[in-house]
Each structure stands twice: as structure tokens, then as C-alpha cells.
Automatic annotation (TrEMBL):
Residues 11-210 form the YjeF N-terminal domain. It catalyses: (6R)-NADPHX = (6S)-NADPHX; (6S)-NADPHX + ADP = AMP + phosphate + NADPH + H(+); (6S)-NADHX + ADP = AMP + phosphate + NADH + H(+); (6R)-NADHX = (6S)-NADHX. PANTHER family: ATP-DEPENDENT (S)-NAD(P)H-HYDRATE DEHYDRATASE (PTHR12592:SF0), ATP-DEPENDENT (S)-NAD(P)H-HYDRATE DEHYDRATASE FAMILY MEMBER (PTHR12592). It comes from Gordonia sesuvii. This is Bifunctional NAD(P)H-hydrate repair enzyme. It comes from the Bacteria. CDD domains: YXKO-related. Bifunctional enzyme that catalyzes the epimerization of the S- and R-forms of NAD(P)HX and the dehydration of the S-form of NAD(P)HX at the expense of ADP, which is converted to AMP. This allows the repair of both epimers of NAD(P)HX, a damaged form of NAD(P)H that is a result of enzymatic or heat-dependent hydration. Its EC number is 4.2.1.136, 5.1.99.6. Residues 218-475 form the YjeF C-terminal domain.
């Protein structure tokens, strides 16, 4: 099953459904136990619990209650816990009493020398940035990388919007975020602000929620989706992709996109364009033609990188989009679509793959902080699938379903990386994957390839291209992380 991310409303619905069946406070007890366990694990990794120092920042709601009960559990393990109450009159009463009974102390401000700080300021009830009192407490902390305390956020790092992932300023930056039942949208959309996310089972059933979904594929799911030749397959039956990219003057995009298509799946890759000679000299297996009339049949097209935006490019794009084949449109192709949106008024699957700037060109508006709503809205209005590039890639279908992918690093932020993504996703479309799955699976392999190529040093798109096949291999063998990260 894909990992499903929930909005705050969906979380509350699931919590109410479970809460009706459970004794008062059961969910909070389970949640706080999960938080305490994560803190204990952090302390044990660095020498044990007894005598260690944990600071807790407590807001006015149940998020603070979770933190206080976690503090009580930690105090019983011999951890010295101090809590700053941001709103003393509104702090969770029973949680505060339990904290005090277990030996926890309330203080005006956090002392230095803490091992862990627990962020219990706000969770799914939060809105806007950290207010001044909380901002002051967190502003005084030394960053973990400089020897400061590990920051464990309860549910959501405070100051991060649970639904949109917008990181307000100021907001807590967590080392670990402990959430309950199912991850919230923010855990994907603001993954870097959340640090490692741990989801604790508290006995709620988040699968009953309906409406627009945000999900991500697991590595195992991407591996299982990846097209590989079956015993009866030949070079045609696996899906032939046609790449239209680059030019004789600028062959780079042609080589990168076509090379990525060759690496991503078996079967056949065709190329159409004036860079045909360059492409074939790099990849002799590509069947290249200079014009569409001379190209053979394909099952999907990937068109756009480096094709220019003149009338010839427009005519070519028009011809491609008037077919009934799946088409991926990228880069210059998107600039043309922005000028002529009617081109994508078609029945066959269409996948647009803009970065933020191209997205703004398509919509006429700058991309705001709510990337999820923006990509969903464009997909819905235009009736196409839209892959919005970035550290967190989002692929929206016209029905509102969105698949996301956290690249885990930003090594792929390099010129030409988008051309590689086009080639991979285009070949997956030709193999019969839906646009959303093709986009999300391509983004995952692209991200793993970037990490594999980089190994902590900068890379160019050629390095990324060379790592596509090893990344697919590692994914299919079930160890993408150990294969792609430096020990
Ligand atoms: N429901 C359940 O079954 C379970 C819930 N659980 C836990 O409860 C959490 C939700 O609790 P919640 O609903 O009490 O809201 P919560 O996030 O604590 O904060 C709301 C308060 O904060 C305030 N506030 C808002 N923005 C702010 C800001 N920027 N900076 C500062 N303050 C701000 C706002 O006050 P006001 O705006 O009125 O001043 C309001 O009073 C959830 O995330 C999970 O941790 C778990 O125990 C599992 C079971
Ligand atoms: K929090």
C-alpha cells in the first residue's frame, strides 16, 4: 500500500472515530508513550537515560499534553526534565499534574546543556509562525550540528502547516518528528523541516478518510512497478518510447533524455530531431530520424527539452499532441503549452513536468507556499497530469489524487537533470504506466541515482545518467538505501 498522508481534518475524523470507542485519554497516553520511546532511543544512542537532561516546550493544547505525559514517563526513567509553559493557565491540566508527580519541574526558560528538547508547542491545531515566546525559547538553542540538543517535535514541528507543509518564519526545525496513526501532509511536503519522521500506532484507522489523497510509493512498490522484459517479450512489446529533444546546435538535452530512456527500460528508444547523429554516436541502439514522418511507431512520446520555441517546434509539438498516444511535455514544450493551452485539450494521457518557473508560466501566477493545492488545481482545470519538480516532487492527476516523492537530497539540482527525468518517465509511459505512477517512479529512481552518483560530492547530469541503471538495480534488489548512501 502506498503511504497515505492526512490533512488535519482527516486526522481529527480518524481520532474521533477511535476516541469514541476508547476510554478518555487513551489516545494521548499512547501518543505520549511513543514520544517518550523516541526520546529514550535518542538518549540511549548517546550514553543512556539516567541523569540526562530533557527540556520541554509546552503550548496551550493537547500537543502540549502529549509532551507533558512524555516528560512524566521520562522523569520516571531518571531523566531530569524541565518544562517551559508558554501559556501556564491553559497548559494541559492532567498532563501537568502527571509531570509534577513524576518529578518534572517547570521553569521560566530552558537552561543550557540539554540533551533533548521536546517541541510540544502546537500540533495539528497550529496556525501561523511560532509566536514570540516560543520563538525566543527555540531561538536560544544551539543547532544539533553545533553540539546543541536534539529536537524532537510532537506531531508537527511547530510553525509548520500540517496541511500545506508551509514552513512559516520562525518555525521549529526538528531532528525527529513523532506522529500518530498516519503521517500528515506536512511530513512529506516539509520533510526537511521534520527530520526523521516516526509514526506511532495509537489504534486509529486512517484508511476510512475520503477525498483528495496525497500518497507516496514505497521503494518496494516502485521496484514492483518497474517494467522488465517477460519471457515472451521482444523489443517492441515492452513499449517503444519516442524522444524529441535538443538540436544539432544544442545536442545535450537530446543525449541526456534519450540516454535516460535507454537506461530506464529494455525494448526500443526512438529519437526524432536534428541531433540524430549526436544521439546515435552516444547510443548506437537508438533508432533516430530527423523528422516525424520518418519515425516509426511508438507507444509514448517525451517531448520538449531543448527543442526551442519557434514555429517549427510548435508545429512538431502540435503534431505529437494530436496523436492518441501518451505524451510527456517538458521544458521548451511547456513554454509552448503555456502560450497555447488548447494543445493539451486531448483525451490521451498527458504528463506535464514543470519546475517552479515553468509552472508559473503555465498558470500565470507565481507558485505560492501551497504547492499541493497549486499542482492539484492545474491538473484538475486542464484535465492533465502535472509533475511539479523540486526536492519534493508532486504528481497530480486530474481527479485530485497526488503522488509525492521526497528526493532525500538535493544533488539532482543540476543542469540537465530534468532532461534525464523526462527520458525515464517517458519510457515508463511507453511501458504502460499511468502518468502519475510513471512520474512518481521516475522521480524515485532519479533521486536514488543522484545520491548514488554524488556520494557526498557535486555531480553533473552525465553522472546522474550513468547512475540510473545502478539505481534501478539496487531498487529491484531491495537495498536502494544502503546502495545509494555513503556509509
Ligand atoms: N485529538 C486526539 O484524539 C489526539 C490528539 N493528539 C495531540 O493533540 C494535538 C492537537 O491538539 P489541539 O487540537 O489541542 O491543538 P494543538 O495543536 O495542541 O494547538 C492548539 C492550540 O495552540 C494555539 N496555537 C495555534 N497556533 C499557534 C502558534 N503558531 N503558536 C502558538 N500557539 C498556537 C491555539 O491557541 P490560541 O490560538 O487560541 O491561542 C490552540 O489552543 C495533536 O497535534 C496531537 O499532538 C494526540 O494526543 C493523539 C490523540
Ligand atoms: K509540535
Amino acid at each position: 500500500m502506498p503511504i497515505r498522508y492526512l490533512t488535519a481534518d482527516a486526522v481529527r475524523d480518524a481520532e474521533h472515530a477511535a476516541g469514541d470507542l476508547l476510554a478518555n485519554g487513551t489516545l494521548m497516553r499512547r501518543a505520549s508513550h511513543g514520544v517518550a520511546q523516541v526520546v529514550i532511543d535518542e538518549l540511549r544512542r548517546t550514553g543512556g537515560c539516567y541523569g540526562r537532561q530533557v527540556g520541554i516546550v509546552v503550548g496551550a493544547g493537547d500537543n502540549g499534553g502529549d509532551a507533558l505525559y512524555a516528560g512524566a514517563a521520562l522523569s520516571r526513567r531518571g531523566v531530569a526534565c524541565t518544562a517551559v509553559l508558554l501559556a501556564p493557565d491553559r497548559a494541559h491540566r492532567a498532563g501537568l499534574a502527571a509531570f509534577g508527580r513524576a518529578g518534572g519541574r517547570t521553569v521560566e526558560t530552558l537552561a543550557g546543556g540539554l540533551d533533548v528538547v521536546i517541541d510540544g508547542v502546537v500540533g495539528i491545531g497550529g496556525h501561523g509562525p511560532l509566536r514570540p515566546a516560543a520563538a525566543e525559547v527555540f531561538g536560544q538553542l544551539t543547532a544539533p550540528a553545533d553540539g546543541g540538543p536534539v529536537v524532537v517535535a510532537v506531531d508537527i514541528p511547530s510553525g509548520v502547516d500540517a496541511d500545506t507543509g508551509q514552513v512559516h518564519d520562525p518555525a521549529v526545525r526538528a531532528t525527529v518528528t513523532v506522529t500518530f496513526g498516519a503521517p500528515r501532509n506536512a511530513h512529506l511536503l516539509a520533510a526537511t523541516q521534520c527530520g526523521r519522521t516516526v509514526t506511532v500506532d495509537i489504534g486509529i484507522d486512517p484508511t476510512g478518510t475520503d477525498g483528495d489523497t496525497l500518497s507516496s510509493l514505497t521503494d518496494d512498490e516502485v521496484a514492483a512497478l518497474w517494467p522488465v522484459p517477460a519471457p515472451a517479450d521482444d523489443k517492441y512489446s515492452q513499449g517503444v518510447v519516442g524522444v524529441i529533444a535538443g538540436s544539432a546546435r544544442y545536442p545535450g538535452a537530446a543525449i541526456l533524455a534519450t540516454g535516460a530512456a535507454v537506461s530506464a527500460t529494455s525494448g526500443m528508444t526512438r529519437y526524432v530531431g536534428t541531433a540524430a547523429d549526436d544521439v546515435v554516436s552516444h547510443f548506437p541502439e537508438v533508432v533516430a530520424a530527423r523528422s516525424l514522418a520518418d519515425a516509426g511507431r511508438v507507444q509514448a512520446w517525451a517531448v520538449g527539452p531543448g527543442i526551442g520555441t519557434d514555429d517549427d517546434a510548435l508545429e512538431l509539438l502540435r503534431d505529437i499532441l494530436s496523436t492518441d498516444l501518451p505524451v510527456l511535455v517538458d521544458a521548451d514544450g511547456l513554454t509552448l503549452v503555456a502560450r497555447h493551452p488548447e494543445l493539451v485539450d486531448r483525451r490521451a494521457p498527458t504528463l506535464l513536468t514543470p519546475h517552479a518557473g515553468e509552472f508559473a508560466r503555465l498558470t500565470g501566477d507565481e507558485l505560492g507556499p501551497d504547492r499541493l493545492a497549486a499542482v492539484r488545481d492545474l491538473a484538475r482545470r486542464w484535465g492533465v497530469s502535472v509533475l511539479l519538480k523540486g526536492r519534493i516532487t508532486l504528481v497530480a492527476d486530474p481527479d485530485g489524487a497526488v503522488l509525492g516523492n521526497d528526493a532525500g537530497s538535493s544533488w539532482a539540482a543540476t543542469a540537465g537533470a530534468g532532461d534525464v527525468l523526462s527520458g525515464i518517465a517517458g519510457s515508463l509511459l511507453a511501458a504502460g504506466l499511468t502518468p502519475a505512477r510513471a512520474g512518481a517512479a521516475a522521480a524515485r529512481v532519479h533521486a536514488h541515482a543522484a545520491e548514488l552518483a554524488a556520494r557526498d560530492a557535486p555531480i553533473g547530469a552525465s553522472d546522474l545518467l550513468a547512475a540510473v541503471r545502478p539505481a534501478i538495480r539496487a531498487l529491484r534488489r531491495g537495498h536502494p538505501t544502503s546502495a545509494t548512501r555513503v556509509p
